[in-house]
Design brief:
The protein is mostly helical. The protein has two domains: about 60 residues, no CATH class; about 150 residues, Intergrase catalytic core (hpI Integrase, Chain A, Orthogonal Bundle), CATH 1.10.443.10. About 40% of the residues lie in helices and about 10% in strands. The chain contains twelve helices and six strands. The chain has a three-stranded antiparallel β-sheet. A three-stranded antiparallel β-sheet has the order 4-5-6, with no helix packed on it. Helix 3 crosses helix 7, helix 4 packs across helix 9 and helix 10 packs across helix 11. The chain is globular and about 75 Å long. About 5% of the residues have low confidence.
């Protein structure tokens, strides 16, 4: 079972911030069934429409399955319950060498063949790793949100998944700072990770898919104009844009940042969500244990 937007309006990309309603989406007996969350909640005591995904998941999804409501269709008033879909824990990590490949490919994609998206994608890659923002949050950062006095970026609650304001510090001598300085002359209203002119860009999925193919030595030519790139090769590469957010959080943990600070930076209301983001590589585990072993040897030498 999942809670998601099903937007029927042409051009809407089912953003969590759009005005379309949330739906229950269930696979049952090999078929997909959908039901508006409002239709379910308003008949069971809700006093207003459900506009938050968190409310739909935490308040109404458990009631959808207890008491059981599923039989021939998921929305029958009698029937039996089915097991809820468990969240898949993704442990994909991006090593420094793998990170360098798409950054290098951005140079190739600065040509007219790729509509000169290379420089913008280069900035977005670094922005995702350094800020650990969600894609929608990152794309809505304006120059006015960059506080150079405190060296931090303001994420407004209206653009955040949890609707809470937060501030993300950045290194004034790191690789994100030159990007912020270069975009500043576009004006306070310009979007840092938008178009070259500073206009808002709500999606760059095609550019991201092409970048992955170029970075891994594949051809980006489509069979027909307007069709998607080779999906089989993308599945083989198995790298999602959201993995950059996970990787940024994992690197903070590896550098010794406390998990509570990582939670604040990611904008998670529950630290359990933060823990699901953090995956430790074999090399990081080996490095940590090597330090423990060395301290034990020194302690035994002192006690002898």
């Amino acid at each position: 079972m999942a809670v998601r937007k099903i937007c029927k309006q042409k051009g809407c990309r089912a953003s969590p911030r759009c005005d379309h309603p949330w739906w229950f989406d269930v696979m049952h007996q090999g078929k997909r069934w959908r039901m508006p969350v409002d239709d379910f909640a308003l008949t069971r005591g809700a006093t207003e429409t459900i506009t938050s995904k968190q409310t739909a998941e935490r308040v109404w999804e458990p009631k959808f399955q207890d008491p059981p409501l599923l039989s021939t269709t998921p929305f029958h008033r009698f029937g039996v319950s089915i097991r809820a879909r468990e969240e898949t824990k993704r442990d994909r990590r991006i090593h420094r060498e793998e990170e360098q490949a798409p950054l290098t490919a951005c140079v190739t994609m600065s040509s007219a063949e790729h509509k000169r998206v290379g420089p913008a994608m280069h900035d977005r890659l670094i922005g995702a790793l350094e800020t650990c923002c969600r894609q929608g949050e990152m794309l809505r950062i304006r120059n006015r949100d960059v506080d150079w006095a405190q060296h931090q970026i303001v994420i407004h609650g209206a653009n955040a998944k949890d609707h809470e304001n937060r501030r993300i510090p950045f290194d004034p001598h790191g690789r994100l700072a030159p990007i912020l300085k270069r975009r500043a002359p576009l004006g306070p209203q310009a979007f840092v990770f938008g178009s070259p002119e500073g206009e808002f860009q709500d999606s760059f999925k095609t550019a991201w898919e092409s970048l992955l193919l170029v970075a891994n030595g594949h051809d980006t030519t489509r069979e027909k104009p307007g069709t998607r790139v080779d999906r089989a090769k993308l599945r083989q590469i198995d790298l999602h844009w959201h993995d950059l957010r996970h990787e940024g959080a994992c690197r903070l943990l590896a550098d010794g940042v406390d998990i509570r600070n990582i939670q604040l930076m990611l904008g998670h209301s529950d630290i359990k969500t933060t823990k699901r983001y953090l995956n430790i590589t074999d090399e990081e585990l080996r490095k940590a244990l090597t330090g423990v072993w060395e301290r034990r040897r020194q302690l035994r030498a002192v006690n002898q």
